[in-house]
Amino acid sequence: MKLQLLDKANGNMVRTEKEKQNMIKQAAKHYGDFLTALGFDWAADPHSANTPHRVAKAWVNDLIKGSLEKEPEITTFPNDEAYSGLICQTRIPVNSLCAHHNLTFHGVCSAAYIPGKNTTDRVIGLSKLNRIVDFYARRPNIQESLTKQIHDHINKLCVGNRGVAVVIESQHNCVKCRGIKHDSVMATSQLSGYFHTNEVGTRVEFFQLISNGRHA
To answer: What is the pTM of this model?
Structure first.
């Protein structure tokens, strides 16, 4: 059966284990051809003889697993005590692939939301923010889109929220390893609700929490 393809590099389509194993097999074959096209007799070198398989396996089982698996199951809870403050987690690890060059970028994500005041509004467990970040990071992406994907998923789950904020700060190996080589950091943000309007200083509070997290 012909493999159905994703229209966008940062998309998602759940694959069966059989499909994943076939992906590894086919990708290894083509990666070997890629190395040959670059002039390497990779099969003759004991250090690279199994490289095509290693690369294909790393992609399927780790680097792009967010493209192949269903989204994490996340239970939401009623805000039954009407908590009205900011909920924030900083320094969430980000490991992703640049969709332009297929080189890694890595850094940290800070994610926050303000629950609605009604007891019917929903909140999520703090560790689930990490799961959401990792789910979208483990696929080819550009940082701008990754930031928005994480924001929109939190916004969807936290029903009745009064604002969601996501900031990613990362270093890109497509910059560090080619062209002008330096250690610059790219920062992207997606803000909505109170964070966007800065109502009662919410945006200032969020960025102060990020700053404090850097020096913790």
So the answer is: 0.95
